[in-house]
Write a structure and sequence with these properties.
Layout: E1 20-23, E2 26-29, H1 30-52, H2 58-83, H3 85-88, H4 105-122, H5 127-134, H6 137-145, H7 147-152, E3 166-167, E4 188-189, H8 192-214, H9 220-237, E5 246-247, E6 250-251, H10 252-271, H11 282-314, H12 316-333
Antiparallel strand pairs: 1-2, 3-4, 5-6
Helix pairs in contact: 1-2, 1-5, 1-6, 2-4, 6-8, 8-9, 9-10
Length: 334
């Protein structure tokens, strides 16, 4: 099959001739830039949705995202290292080289969402509201970040002669899993980075539509995102030819995708009937904060009256003066 792919395909996607941008002495890796661009877009959408619900601000979104992104990157890298341990077993120095690629989205989601929801709660934002606002923001970041794989020429799919097939240069060709031999130069492949990017963009649009049309409660919209991610990832993962552990008929990440589908659907069914816990608006908060103050002031006044009465009773001169006045009144009456 590889021999039939040797000729260039008309209309194919060319392999990029560079994967970094040099600005003076500074060299910027495009893989990292695409991830950063995705994060910025995701944080923007997250903050906008918080403001629309009067649940937080763009500053809240940025503060939450800082820790969520750090945790997500760590989790994504740990997942990749754990699932591709043969590559790092005798070369620990490659573990922190994020710029060379190798981030596992399942690990990033697990670590990033856990820390993100915790930070949202610390800022007074209900977890259910944060989950609903983040549901379309996360796939938006993924849709943009996936283009980093294109510039690294990695994680492509099986050989194909489709009009949108992807060209790969000689330095980035992997072995054909069917034959164990390297693909021949000129072979074109399924652009799985593009498939997953388009699927993620479609997920963003569908989640925004569902939220606007039906307003699912309790953070269940995030469950729908997890399920939709799992569906897309299962399909795309089945096309990829990069080395990966297999369990039975599926690659490891396909089993993880199936688990994501089950967890996402289960979360949606459980959470959809639970109402969101929205924080009070500023006006309501001000009114609520005034009421205890007024009660305290009235109480203080009452206590002051009691204190005055106690003083009157405790002052013998004032008591005597009162008795004398009473006697005068009696005499006058007589």
């Amino acid at each position: 099959m590889a021999d039939t792919m040797r000729s260039a395909v008309i209309g194919s996607i060319p392999s990029p001739s560079f994967n970094s941008i040099d600005i003076g002495p500074l060299s910027l890796n495009i893989y990292g830039l695409m991830i950063a661009a995705g994060v910025i877009a995701g944080v923007w959408l997250f903050g906008r949705r918080l403001e629309q619900r009067h649940a937080g601000t763009s500053d809240d979104a940025s503060s939450i995202a800082i820790w969520a992104v750090i945790a997500g990157v760590i989790g994504a890298r740990l997942y990749h290292v754990a699932t591709d341990w043969d590559r790092f077993a005798n070369n620990y120095g490659d573990i922190p080289k994020l710029w060379e690629g190798g981030l596992g989205i399942p690990g990033g989601l697990l670590f990033g969402t856990a820390v993100g929801f915790y930070m949202a709660r610390e800022r007074g934002i209900a977890i259910s509201t944060a989950a609903t606002c983040a549901a379309p923001a996360v796939p938006l970041a993924q849709a943009i970040g996936r283009w980093g794989n294109y510039f690294n020429q990695e994680l492509y799919g099986r050989a194909t002669d489709l009009p949108w097939a992807l060209q790969i240069d000689a330095d980035h060709l992997v072995n054909d899993p069917a034959t164990g031999e390297s693909f021949l130069l000129g072979t074109t492949f399924h652009p799985t980075f593009l498939y997953e990017s388009l699927w993620s963009f479609a997920t963003v649009g569908l989640l925004l539509f569902i939220d606007r049309r039906w307003r699912p409660q309790g953070g269940s919209l995030f469950g729908l995102y997890i399920a939709m991610y799992g569906v897309g990832r299962f399909w795309v993962e089945g096309l990829r030819v990069d080395p990966a552990d297999e369990i039975g008929p599926f690659r490891w990440n396909q089993w993880v995708a199936l688990a994501a589908i089950a967890v996402g659907i289960g979360a949606y069914l459980v959470l959809r009937s639970r109402p969101d816990v929205e924080p009070p608006s500023k006006g309501e908060a001000d009114e609520n904060s005034d009421e205890p103050t007024a009660d305290l002031d009235d109480t203080d006044l009452d206590e002051a009256d009691v204190d005055d009465a106690d003083l009157d009773e405790a002052d013998p001169d004032r008591v005597s003066a009162g008795l004398a006045d009473d006697e005068l009144d009696v005499e006058d009456t007589r």
